[in-house]
C-alpha cells in the first residue's frame, strides 16, 4: 500500500497527546507500507528531520513560521478570523503550499490512499482525487464548547463563536472523506448523531508498551502524586490549577508529607507560581516522562474540558501506576471505575480517592494490576496500528469496488 500522510507538524519530539497517538500508528504503518509524510516544519523542528526519516518513511517538509500566542501577529490573526467562516485553528493550519505539493505527488506517483491527520488540516486535503481517510482525534466543536462553558465574559463568547464555526466546518469536512477514524465509540456516536456521518470507524487508544514498562513501587517516592500532560493546552492548565488549589490542600490536610509534581512542556506563569506551595513541583519541558512516573505512587487526571481520549492515563497505567481521574478525563477509554481506575467528579471525592490509594498499598497495587491487564489485551501500539491498517485496506478495497 502506498500512503500519502498529511500532517501540520512533525511527530517528533513526541511532546503532545496528538503527536503520540499518531506516532504510535505511523511508525508501524511505515514498517508495513510505503509512507510519504507531507507536513510543515518549524525552525525548531529541523533537528528532528533525520529522526522522522528514521521511522522508515519518506519526508516531504515545507518550512513554516508560527506566531506566538502572545504576539501582536497572533492577535491580528485572531481578530481577522472573526470575519472568516473558518475556525481560527483551521485558518492558521492552512498552507496552500502543502496542498500543491500533495497535488504534485498524486500526479506523479500511484498512491493508493491519503490520510489527513486532524480535521484542522482538512482544507489542505479535501477533494484530492484519491480514496481518503480523516484521522479524527476529538470532536473538535465539543472541545471548544466545553471550554466556553467554563469561562465567563468575552472569552466565553469567543470560544462559543469558535465552537459554532468548528461545528459547521467539521461536519462538512468529515463528509468529504471516504472514511473517518475516531478514537472512541462515544466519539463515533456523536459524529453519527450530530453530523449524520455513516462512514466512521473506531480504533482503540494505544500506548507504546515497549517504551513504557511497569516499574516496581520500591522505586517510587512514598505519598508522591504526579500529573503528566502538555501545559500549554488550556484544559490541562485549568484542570491542574483547580486540582492544586481546591483538591490538593484536602490531600495535604490528611497526609502532610504528600508531594505533587506537574510534568509538561511550556507551563504558563499561573502554573509556575504553584512551585513550592504545599509540596508542589513544576518541571516544565522534560525529554522523558518515565522517571517522573516511576517516582510516583499515584497519577491524577483532573480534566474538566477537552475531548478525545487521554493517552496520559494509559502511559501511567503502563508504568504500573494507579490513576485517579474525572469521568471526562477517562472518557472513551473503557476503564471500569473501582476496578481499573478511580473516577471522581467532585473535589472531596477526588481528594478521598487520592488519599485512599496513597494509604492503602494493596488497593493501589490491585487497581494498577487490573488496569495493566487491559492495556496488554488490546491497547499496545502495534495492535492499534493494526486496527488502523485494516480500516485503510477496507477503504481502498471499497474504492476499487465502486463503493464509498
From TrEMBL:
Q: What is the designated name of this protein?
A: Glycosyltransferase
**UniProt keyword terms in alphabetical order:** Transferase
GO MF entries: glycosyltransferase activity
Is Transferase given among the entry's keywords? Answer: yes
* Organism of provenance: Roseiconus nitratireducens
The UniProt entry, under Pfam families, shows:
Glyco_trans_1_4, Glyco_transf_4
Q: Which Gene3D superfamilies match?
A: Glycogen Phosphorylase B
Q: Which CDD domains match?
A: GT4_PimA-like
Under InterPro entries, the record lists: Glyco_trans_4-like_N
Keyword Lyase included in the entry's annotation? no
**UniProt domain Glycosyltransferase subfamily 4-like N-terminal: residue ranges:** 19-210
Amino acid at each position: 500500500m502506498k500512503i500519502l500522510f498529511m500532517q501540520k507538524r512533525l511527530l517528533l519530539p513526541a511532546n503532545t497527546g496528538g503527536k503520540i497517538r499518531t506516532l504510535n500508528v505511523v511508525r508501524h504503518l511505515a514498517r508495513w507500507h510505503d509512507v510519504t509524510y507531507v507536513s510543515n516544519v518549524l525552525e525548531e523542528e529541523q533537528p528532528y528531520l533525520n529522526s522522522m526519516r528514521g521511522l522508515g518513511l519518506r519526508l516531504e517538509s515545507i518550512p513554516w513560521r508560527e506566531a506566538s500566542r502572545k504576539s501582536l501577529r497572533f492577535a491580528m490573526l485572531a481578530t481577522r478570523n472573526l470575519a472568516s467562516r473558518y475556525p481560527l485553528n483551521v485558518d492558521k493550519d492552512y498552507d496552500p503550499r502543502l496542498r500543491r505539493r500533495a497535488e504534485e505527488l498524486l500526479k506523479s506517483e500511484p498512491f493508493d490512499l491519503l490520510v489527513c491527520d486532524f480535521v484542522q488540516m482538512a482544507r489542505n486535503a479535501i477533494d484530492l482525487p484519491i480514496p481518503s481517510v480523516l484521522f479524527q482525534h476529538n470532536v473538535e466543536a465539543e472541545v471548544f464548547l466545553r471550554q466556553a462553558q467554563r469561562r465567563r465574559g468575552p472569552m466565553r463568547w469567543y470560544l462559543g463563536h469558535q465552537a459554532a464555526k468548528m461545528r459547521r466546518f467539521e461536519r462538512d469536512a468529515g463528509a468529504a472523506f471516504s472514511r473517518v477514524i475516531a478514537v472512541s465509540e462515544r466519539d463515533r456516536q456523536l459524529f453519527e448523531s450530530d453530523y449524520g456521518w455513516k462512514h466512521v470507524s473506531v480504533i482503540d487508544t494505544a500506548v507504546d508498551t515497549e517504551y513504557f514498562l511497569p516499574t516496581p513501587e520500591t522505586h517510587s517516592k512514598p505519598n508522591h502524586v504526579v500529573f503528566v500532560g502538555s501545559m500549554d493546552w488550556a484544559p490541562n492548565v485549568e484542570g491542574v490549577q483547580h486540582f492544586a488549589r481546591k483538591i490538593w490542600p484536602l490531600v495535604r490536610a490528611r497526609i502532610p508529607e504528600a508531594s505533587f509534581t506537574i510534568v509538561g512542556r511550556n507551563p504558563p506563569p499561573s502554573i509556575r507560581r504553584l512551585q513550592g506551595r504545599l509540596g508542589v513541583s513544576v518541571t516544565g519541558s522534560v525529554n522523558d516522562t518515565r522517571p517522573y512516573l516511576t517516582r510516583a505512587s499515584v497519577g491524577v487526571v483532573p480534566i474538566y474540558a477537552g475531548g478525545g481520549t487521554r493517552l496520559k492515563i494509559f502511559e501511567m497505567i503502563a508504568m504500573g501506576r494507579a490513576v485517579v481521574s474525572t469521568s471526562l478525563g477517562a472518557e472513551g477509554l473503557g476503564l471500569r471505575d473501582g476496578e481499573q481506575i478511580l473516577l471522581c467528579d467532585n473535589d472531596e471525592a477526588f481528594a478521598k480517592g487520592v488519599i485512599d490509594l496513597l494509604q492503602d498499598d494493596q488497593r493501589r497495587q490491585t487497581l494498577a494490576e487490573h488496569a495493566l491487564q487491559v492495556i496488554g489485551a488490546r491497547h499496545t501500539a502495534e495492535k492499534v496500528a493494526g486496527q488502523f491498517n485494516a480500516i485503510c485496506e477496507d477503504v481502498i478495497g471499497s474504492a476499487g469496488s465502486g463503493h464509498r
